[in-house]
Design a protein that fits this description.
The chain is α/β, with parallel strands linked by helices. The protein folds into 3 domains: about 210 residues, TIM Barrel (Alpha-Beta Barrel), CATH 3.20.20.300; about 200 residues, Glycoside hydrolase family 3 C-terminal domain (Rossmann fold, 3-Layer(aba) Sandwich), CATH 3.40.50.1700; about 120 residues, Sandwich (Immunoglobulin-like), CATH 2.60.40. The protein has 21 helices and 25 strands. Strand 1 and strand 2 form a beta hairpin. The longest helix has 24 residues. InterPro entries: BXL, Fn3-like, GH, Glyco_hydro_3_C, Glyco_hydro_3_C_sf, Glyco_hydro_3_N, Glyco_hydro_3_N_sf, Ig-like_fold. Belongs to the glycosyl hydrolase 3 family.
Length: about 725
């Protein structure tokens, strides 16, 4: 279809056949971009892409967030924070969550479009998930990730991407984006300027696997280049990362965006080039399609100065429009299954119950002396206290949406206990500072109570992103791993006065050290930032409606002295894979209300030839009195760790349900590529030798058994 667009000075024919859904997306993109002026193309290379009326292209803002629910865009279901989802060790659940999020996103998009809201956060291109390795527990944004292990991160991240993007062969439900590429996990206060220079071994063993998995397995539509430099080149201008690895080695065919302000930072933060025009040029050359920010508006000058060609702008623009066509938000869409999702899907009961399920499955029982949990709902005098017992802020985690249904822990417990229960509540302590009033009766209430449930921890005011964590003394990060001093002192007062058992409920997005109080607590629950149904989920676990089943996706050190320097990206001494000191709680650990026994570990072969898969099975039995979910974990440890090999590595996991008294046979297939090690040069190699295969429900260590994990099974194999 040709239309003549007239003015006083010119007349131009517009070919609107790019709207024809019978044409391929590549054809439609070619037809559209060929008709755009240089200025029009440049206007589409920033996140706030303006409308082009003569081509009937609407304005669109690429910046949208959906880390654990639609964020910053009104009413939406709030799921547990990413680290809590990681604690479920359940990729299928992650995909269900992401699918629910994308359903709400499509429904909200339809409503927004009808009311003319094309603003930031109201679109379908979501800059999530965050798959940076949580290498240091001081990092404020580690809560956004799925933990410290590359394999767990990959499995959960791929599932989340699939849920967001849907399974239609032609159209995207929403567009996911893997961030922050690459080698980016603090410190927050230098995130715009630091240069990460890990060994090639650490790069390929730790920092890149999740990104590779999301590209090659998850088919993620977008990748976000980080603020920092890698090997001296800013990530958004790093041809090694964006071209050699991402495009060539991995075959990525989606769009690349900068982090917000990162292109401008190439000149004004990194000082890599002298001017913003040069910054825009080097980023575009390296492969960054989209500038979150405004620096790319200078690309017309870059063309005029001969720094780049219009042909390169054409190429980068086409990749962006390909994503918009795949979403079906330009022109007509034929057989797009995502165009008629009703608004009643937004914060629907099904999604609320899913949020509760995720929160239930994310809670980690770290301690349960004398089986003090679960509690009876007919308990006479329970005492709920602590600065976050009735806090809605604690539920949310960073990058949150808004909901009218935020259930605090006090509310959840109130709904769970008997109507005849004399439930008492006092906050007892301020979140992050000493009480102003020296008089405080709250600790004395514990002396009159059958059980004291104390809710302590952090919020995203204390740990989070550089610009958001207003109570952080280190621009988003934690200075140490301790609870705030006033909270520690309050717990100590409760320990002094309590009559019944003390149940400590810890809310945080990162490891919190409990040195000095852990030994006096009868039970400890780690609940992360559990989302809008957090209060109900905690009550479900406390009173035995469901057994806890979360497992730690990150090691909990005893104190900061066990950690290497925060600004070092060397992995030695970090995470369960390289840490030699005994932590407070190990990676993969988590108790249930029952007992698990592993038996009958069977290998198909214990001597493997090069490129042969490892196949094995194990029987898992629930010998206790509660139905449970268990996370069966498979680790491989080399007998010879020379060459900086990991002490042990997670190579497989399966979450299973077991009725009391039941047993299940669980099978694993570890692909031959997973059996290879990454050498000092960053290359994967089949390294001959002896290895231990260990199957259990926690990472292999004597501490795991000491804390109550099942006895693992071990067998040797040879490669």
């Amino acid at each position: 279809m040709l239309i003549i667009i007239g003015s006083y000075s010119y007349a131009q024919e517009v070919d609107f056949s790019f709207k024809d859904p019978s044409l391929s997306i590549d054809q439609r993109v070619e037809l559209l971009v060929a008709q755009m002026t240089l200025e029009e193309k440049v206007s589409q290379l920033v996140n706030a892409a303006v409308a082009i009326p003569r081509l009937e292209i609407p304005d669109y803002d690429w910046w949208n967030e959906a880390l654990h629910g639609i964020a910053r865009n009104g009413k939406a279901t709030i799921y547990p924070q990413g680290i809590g989802l990681g604690a479920t060790f359940d990729p299928e659940l992650a995909e269900r969550v992401a699918s629910a999020i994308s359903t709400e996103a499509r429904a909200k998009y339809i409503v927004s479009q009808k009311m003319g809201n094309h603003s930031k956060y109201a679109g379908l291109t979501f800059w999530t998930p965050n798959i940076n390795i949580f290498r240091d527990p001081r990092w404020g944004r580690g809560q956004e990730t799925y933990g410290e292990d590359p394999y767990l991160m990959s499995e959960m991240g791929v599932a989340f991407v699939k849920g967001l993007q849907g399974n239609d062969p032609n159209y995207l439900k929403t567009a996911a984006c893997a961030k922050h590429y690459a080698v980016h996990s603090g410190p927050e206060n230098i995130r715009h300027s630091f240069n990460a220079a890990p060994t090639k071994q650490d790069l390929y063993e730790t920092y890149l696997p999740a990104f590779e998995a999301l590209v090659t397995e998850g088919k993620v539509e977008g990748v976000m280049a980080a603020y920092n430099a890698v090997y001296g080149e800013p990530a958004a201008a790093n041809s090694f990362l964006l071209q050699e690895i991402l495009r060539v080695q991995w075959g990525f065919d989606g769009y690349i965006t900068s982090d917000c302000g990162a292109v401008g930072g190439i000149s004004n933060k990194q000082k890599y080039v002298n001017t913003p025009v040069e910054a825009a040029a080097v980023a575009l050359k390296a492969g960054t399609n989209l500038n979150c920010g405004g620096t790319y508006s200078l690309l017309t000058q870059a063309v005029e100065h001969g720094l780049i060609t219009e042909e390169l702008i054409n190429k980068r623009t086409k990749q962006l429009f390909k994503t918009r066509f795949r979403l079906g938000i330009i022109g007509e869409s034929k057989d797009n299954p995502y165009l008629d999702i009703s608004s009643d899907k937004i914060h629907c009961e099904e999604h609320v119950q899913l949020a509760r399920e995720v929160a239930q499955k994310s809670i980690v029982l770290l301690k349960n002396n004398n089986a003090v949990l679960p509690l009876s709902k007919d308990i006479k005098i329970p005492y709920v206290t602590g600065p976050f017992a009735n806090s809605a802020d604690m539920l949310m985690g960073s990058y949150y949406g808004v909901s009218s249904n935020l259930v605090t822990i006090l509310e959840g417990i109130t709904d769970a206990v008997s109507l005849g229960t004399s439930l008492n509540y006092r906050s007892g302590a301020l979140p992050f500072q000493k009480n102003l009033n020296p008089k405080n009766w709250a600790p004395h209430v514990a002396a009159e109570s059958d059980v004291t449930i104390c809710v302590v921890g952090l919020t995203v005011d204390r740990e989070g992103e550089e610009v958001d964590a207003i109570a952080s003394a280190d621009e988003g990060d934690k200075i140490d791993l301790k609870l705030p001093e006033n909270q520690i002192n309050y717990v100590k007062e409760l320990i002094e006065y309590k009559k019944g058992p003390l149940i400590l409920v810890v809310a945080s997005g990162s490891p919190v050290s409990l040195e000095g109080i852990e030994e006096y607590c009868d039970a400890i629950l780690q609940i992360w930032y559990p989302g809008e149904q957090g209060g109900n989920a905690v009550a479900d676990v406390l009173f035995g409606d469901i057994s806890p089943s979360g497992h730690l996706p990150i090691t909990f050190p005893k104190n900061i002295e066990q950690l290497p320097p925060y600004d070092s990206y060397a992995m030695q001494g970090r995470t369960y894979k390289y840490m030699t000191e005994e932590p407070m709680f190990p990676f993969g650990f988590g108790l249930t209300y029952s007992q698990t026994i592993f038996s009958d570990l069977q290998l198909k072969a214990d001597k493997l030839k090069k490129n042969q898969n490892l196949e094995l099975s194990v029987t898992v039995s629930n010998t206790g009195n509660y139905d449970i979910d268990e996370v069966v974990q498979l680790y491989i440890s080399p007998e010879d760790t020379s060459g900086n090999l990991p002490i042990t590595s997670l190579k497989g996991f399966k979450r299973i349900s077991l009725k009391k008294g039941a047993s299940k046979k669980v099978s694993f297939l570890v692909a031959s590529d997973q059996l290879k090690v990454v050498n000092l040069e960053g290359e994967k190699e089949w390294r001959k030798g002896s290895y231990k295969v260990i199957v259990g429900n926690s990472s292999p260590s004597s501490l795991s058994q000491k804390l109550g994990a099942a006895i693992p099974l071990e067998v040797n194999i040879r490669l």
